[in-house]
Amino acid sequence: MRVVVFRPINDTCTGAFRIGSILDDGRIADLTPEGLSRISCESELLKFFDLELGPLRNTAPGRTFERTEVTLVAPVPRPGKVICVGLNYRDHAEESGLPIPESPIIFSKFPTSITGPDLPIKLPHGSSEVDYEAELAVIIGRRASRVSSTDAMDYVFGYANFNDVSARDFQFADGQWQRGKSCDTFGPLGPFVLTRDEVADPHDLRIRFRLNGETLQDSNTGQMIFRIPELIEFISGSITLEPGDVIATGTPPGVGFARSPKIFLRSQDIAEVEIEGLGVLRNPIVGEEGQDVRSAK
Ligand code: ZN
C-alpha cells in the first residue's frame, strides 16, 4: 500500500488532513475513517501508523480522488521523532577516507523540519551552504523498546524517500549538528510511505539524488554499514521508538560539500530523491524573500 496524507484542493480548511492510498491507476482512495470528516491535528495522524491498531487495513475505501484534485503533504507530517544515522554508507565512508564506524552515529532533526512532496525547501537566512542528502527513511509501526535485531523488522511500518537537507555552515560553525539539520523545510519526506510487505529487500534498492536533472548521488541501500534491524536494536536499546517515528538511514557518496568544486542548493533549483519503488520526492528550492540568488562555490 502506498500511504499518503492529503488535502482536497477544494477544502479551504488548511489545517486539516485526510489519509489515503495511491491506487494502481494513480487515483487516491480516501481511507479517513467514516464519521471523521477530516483529521484536524498532525499528531492525530500518528495512530494510523500503529500496526497494533491497524486502522488503515480495517477501513473500507471511501470516495476516490483524481491526483489533480488533491494536494499531498508529507506522509507523516509531524513524526514524534526524526532520528538520523551519520556516515552509514560504506562507499561514502571510503570516499571520505574515514574509518568505518564501529557503532551507529545517531543525531536528530526537529520534527518541525518535515515537509512534503513538491513543497519548497527554504534557504534559511544567514546560510549559503545548504546541501542535500538522499536517504531511505524507515517509518516505525509499533512501539519498540529493547527490540532485538531478529525481531526488528516486525516494528517497521514502511519506507519513504527522505532528503536530509543540511546547512553545512551552521552545522560546522556550531560544533554540533542540531541547528544545521533542523531548519524549517529541511526534512522533505514522501511522496508516499510504501508498506513493508511490498518491499522485498530494503537493502537492495537503487538510491539517487538529482539536482536540476543531473544525477549527483547514485548508489544502493546494500551499501549500508548498519542495516535496518541493527539500527532498530541499537536505538531502541535506550530510546523508545513509537509509531510514525522516522529513522533516516544515512546517505551515499556525492553530497555537495564533499565535491570539488562544492555544490550547494540555490534558489530555483529542483532537488529530487528517487529510491527504487518509492516514487520521486521533488522539491523546488526558494530563497528567503529579499535574499539574493546564491552562487555555487
Ligand atoms: Zn544524513
Structural class: mainly beta
Outline type: globular
CATH topology of the largest domain: Fumarylacetoacetate hydrolase, domain 2
What is the highest CATH level, the class of the largest domain?
A: Alpha Beta
- Estimated share of beta-strand residues: 25-35%
Number of separate structural domains = 2
Q: What average pLDDT do the residues reach?
A: 92
Distance between the termini: 42 Å
Low-confidence stretches: 292-297
Number of strands: 19
CATH superfamily of the largest domain: Fumarylacetoacetase-like, C-terminal domain
* Order of H and E elements: EEEEEEHEEEEEEEHHEEEHEEE
Spatial extent as radius of gyration? 18 Å
The appropriate CATH architecture of the largest domain is: Alpha-Beta Complex
Number of helices: 4
Q: What is the percent of helical residues?
A: under 10%
Major pleated sheet? 12 strands, mixed
Bound molecules: zinc ion
Give structural notes:
There is one protein chain. The protein is mainly beta and 297 residues long. A hairpin with a 5-residue loop joins β2 and β3. It has helices spanning 90-96, 168-174, 178-182, 228-236, and strands at 2-8, 18-22, 28-30, 64-65, 70-73, 82-86, 105-109, 114-115, 121-122, 130-131, 134-140, 156-163, 166-167, 187-195, 206-211, 214-220, 246-248, 270-275, 280-286. The protein has four helices and 19 strands. The protein is globular, with a radius of gyration of 18 Å. The longest helix is centred in the C-terminal third of the chain and has 9 residues, at 228-236. Mean pLDDT is 92; it is low at 292-297. It has two domains: 2-73, no CATH class; 82-295, Fumarylacetoacetate hydrolase, domain 2 (Alpha-Beta Complex). Strands 1, 2, 3, 4, 5, 6, 7, 8, 11, 12, 14 and 17 form a twelve-stranded mixed sheet that branches. The protein has a five-stranded mixed sheet with strand order 9-19-18-15-16, with no helix packed on it. It has a two-stranded antiparallel ribbon with strand order 10-13. The protein binds zinc ion. Zinc ion binds next to loops.
